[in-house]
Amino acid sequence: MAKDVKPRVKVPKTAAAGEVITIKTLISHKMESGNRKDSNGNRIPRSIINRFTCDFNGQNVIDVEMQPAISTNPFFEFQAKVPESGEFKFTWYDDNGSIYEATRAITVS
Amino acid sequence: MRTVTTLLAASALLLGAGAAVADDHDRIEIDGVVLTLRAPAPAYLENMDEVMSGWLFRSEETQALQLDDFDNPAFVFLDQAMDDWSRVEGSEGKSCASCHEDLSGFAGLKTVLPRVVDGGLQTMEDIINAERVNRMGAEPLKYDSAAMNRMVALIGLQSRGMPMNVAVDGDAAPFWEQGRELYYTRVGQLDMACANCHEDNYGNMIRADRLSQGQINGFPVYRLKNAKLNSVHGRFKGCMKNIRATPYKPGSEEFKALELYVASRGNGLSVETPSVRN
Amino acid sequence: MRLTRRDALALGLGATAASFLPLRAVASAEEAIAAFTGGVEPAEGGVTLNAPEIAENGNTVPVSVEAPGATAIILIATGNPQPGVATFNFGPLAGAQSAATRIRLAGTQEVIAIAKMADGGFARASRVVKVTIGGCGG
After folding, report:
1. What is the pLDDT of residue C134?
2. B138 within 8 A of B244, measured Cβ to Cβ
3. Domains, chain C, with CATH or none
């Protein structure tokens, strides 16, 4: 799984101090629900991303607990307040222990 | 039997009530590029006046996914294709990027494919594999594989907004005729031809699904159903299974001819690759 | 008996539909909600849940939630094998207590959003989403 997992994030490059911005994230992942069976009738084990977080300069924006009902290639859109210049950090936690990260800098003008 | 038919028809009507064909769109804009969703039917389409993008037949929510390249999940696969693009493979120590400075050189290529080269039909897949084998000394990609479909989509994207314009005459004429024949020939247990759904009944419901014209200007397409990129030949295969026919193989001469013919039915529509459908 | 094409089509597709009857949850939606609210009865209003009236495919249904002043919002799909979908916890830098995502719905069902408000109360909203079984799977 890990080699195909690819995060995409969309964050404006600049903002005014205190501005609320829209962030979108998408990551390639099968999100195998654990409810499906293979052609031999054996249950396919669950393998999902179970948590997603976004932090800015160490402070939390959103922390999402995810269940198998989140679609393949999980997408989130949410709002963040930008008090100063800094860096957004996005983290996805896989059932298999893998952690996928992305960062984006933003400049407050 | 009668009961089954009536019940299904009733539920189709019920569910279809909220999802009419969008009449108010002639074009959409994605990332600053204008796409034409309706065009006058080419003269050789005797039974239709207008050709219409499959986008018009989808629900508002599905349509919205295609309007922004970030919302469009196909782009996770295009990112993977970009990685493939610059990965060195094969005996010559080359990647695609070693010879091709940038992708924009492929603008327009999709609009003329399939085309006749050396007496045979050439698809985008054929071009990619010929380059891999002859220039890179790499293994060809499997037709209709994930790696192939995303590369076809990445190169197709370079033509987005340009009108489809495949040749139907000259060298192409016999292949086009073969494709046309396949399009109108009833096959399978349900004894149906492409035309029965996509020419005679587009806009009507097939159970809870609205039939489109079966245009391929947006392929490879991200389908909500399987959450991946789907190739033209993969879709043909799916349609043939639906009508309980034995499908031709992806990459077969039959499917290439059908691809040329179906592409020609969309001449004038913009390349939409990668589109989003249900 | 002579089958018309339309009859044959309906019959064939009817058989397909019968083999895809969705699994139904065994009423654990209430349990998931109780675990979130601690048994407090949520008020109607104060949280907005947006979802399509009809989803073209249950695999990818766009939904969004918003509850000004909430600290968390839980999303429940009452008709799924496991009703829990997601819990959105809003941090100090959340620009709004809102989020959008795409979810799987195993069939036509009620989707519920419950918001935990900063004052300890709860708010509830729900929508019925009809999930169509497409004509041509491919």
Report:
1. 59
2. no
3. 5-131 (2.60.40.2470)
B79, A4: Cβ pair inside 8 Å?
Answer: no
> C104 touching A, CB under 8 A?
yes
B204/A26 Cα distance (integer angstroms): 34
* Residues near B234 by beta carbon (within 8 Å), at least 6 away in sequence: B144, B149, B250, C138
Average pLDDT over residues C62-79: 96
Count CB pairs under 8 A between chains A and C: 102
Please tell me the pTM assigned to this model.
Answer: 0.86
pLDDT of residue C26: 42
Chains that touch B (3 or more CB pairs under 8 A): A, C
| Closest among B230, B202, B217 to B268, alpha carbons compared | B217
Contacts of B208 in chain C (CB under 8 A): 132-135
Does A1 fall in a domain?
no
pLDDT for residue A26 is more than 80? yes
The partner residue sitting opposite C103, judged by closest CB among A20, A35, A70, is A70
Does residue C21 register a pLDDT over 60? no
Range of the domain at A93: 6-108
Closest CA to C75 of C100, C108, C57: C100
What is the Cα B245 distance to its own chain's centre?
Answer: 20
Q: Give C14's contacts in chain B (Cβ within 8 Å).
A: 4, 8
Ordered domains of chain B (ranges, CATH): 27-72+162-277 (1.10.760.10), 74-157 (1.10.760.10)
User: Which tokens hold the place of C92?
Assistant: 């100090």
Strand A86-94 relative to strand A49-56, pairing: antiparallel
Query: Is the per-residue pLDDT at C1 higher than 60?
Result: no
Kindly report the number of other CB atoms within 10 A of residue B40's CB atom.
11
Cis check: omega of the bond before B220, within 30 degrees of 0: yes
Handedness of CA C21, B278, C127, C64 (dihedral sign): positive
Residue B17, pLDDT above cutoff 90: no
